[in-house]
Amino acid sequence: MRRAFTFLLRPTVKQAAALAACLEDHRTLYNAALEHRRTAYAKAGVSVRYADQSAELKYIRADDAGGQGRWSFSSQQATLRRLDKAFRAFFDRVKAGRTPGFPRFKGRGRFDSVEWPRDGDGCRWDSQPEHPSATFVRLQGVGHVRVHQHRPIRGRVKTISVKREGMRWYVVLSCDDVPTGPLPATGAVAGIDLGVASLVTTSGGAHVANPRHLAATADRLAAAQRDLARKKRGSKRRHKAVARVAAMHGKVRRQRLDHAHKTALVLVRGYDVIVHEDLRITNMTRSASGTIDAPGRNVAAKSGLNRSILDAGWGVFLTILAHKAESAGRELIAVNPAGTSRTCARCGHCAKENRVTQAAFACTACGHATHADVNAAINILRAGLALRRAAEAA
């Protein structure tokens, strides 16, 4: 099993400057390689591949020994593969008839990570194992950078990445052969309904609150963004204002991740089988503004709902839940959510009139009344168990 471990870096001032220079040089390489591909096709109709650009790296490094030549050859190849992956995704979208979205040049705020594909090739995890109390990662051109290792890693370190978030630096280890730890069986099953008022509601009637992290910091974030808008582009003050806004967004993201991890862990420890809705979050949060000729309706209300859905972090939560369920040996089932919120869990009558309010459910056929999210979670559980039985019978 493969897992990622993320740790905070504690670089010195000199090392932080070297990390920033490393990111900038890799961004320049990415943009130059993109321009090479665009120009070759526009002028001569020639498609440049990854292998062609990788073969030119040794000449680029030789001509710029004090710049591109400082960094790991393998990390630069990983940056070229990153561009190649963007082109392959572009052509896949073209073939599928979707909006293609041609690969774009990366601005200074759009390129914040570098990958070293193999531990020991331009990088080394735990580069000073004899140190009594600290862990270090060695990066070519940067040196031995101290790591705040708050938990032990498991498995074999395969790739090492460094990313920047605001004023912070992180190292991400991708580890192979991570041992799984199946939890003891509980014999319990649960359906879960995701919502905005409560992040998770189980079929047993338990509710997990939605902390609304973004809403809690909205006023301070708006003030910081207004302050940013008043700064002159290219100035030091604007750079600090950008870092302040990024730090706020980073804190919200970390709070959301922390809450998702804790909630998913409680579910995985408590249930052998967990059934959830197979949500299409991108479709659910699509703008309702419409066009000039056909303007949308209730745009402000839909915008607020979209913001609340994204603040709840359903996608992040489901991804984390899937990883924890796999590691713990639990079964996770996704079902079609259509009709689950309007169908009575007692008699099966389905009508939009059953949903009295956001929180209240009252069946117009049998009179069954309960919390709307609990009713939906019960329907989700039944649909998941039906799918499970059908799969076992097949």
UniProtKB/TrEMBL annotation:
Question: For the Transposase putative helix-turn-helix domain, which residue ranges apply?
Answer: 1-43
Which positions make up the signal peptide?
Answer: none
Sequence ranges assigned to domain Cas12f1-like TNB in this UniProt record: 314-380
User: Which InterPro entries does this UniProt record tie to the protein?
Assistant: Cas12f1-like_TNB, RNA-guided_DNA_endo/Transpos, Transposase, Transposase_put_HTH
The Swiss-Prot or TrEMBL record describes its family as follows: In the C-terminal section; belongs to the transposase 35 family.
One GO MF annotation is: endonuclease activity
* Record's keyword terms, sorted: DNA recombination, DNA-binding, Endonuclease, Hydrolase, Metal-binding, Nuclease, Transposition, Zinc
Q: What is this protein called?
A: RNA-guided endonuclease InsQ/TnpB family protein
Pfam families named in the record: Cas12f1-like_TNB, HTH_OrfB_IS605, OrfB_IS605
Q: Where is the Probable transposase IS891/IS1136/IS1341 domain?
A: 181-287
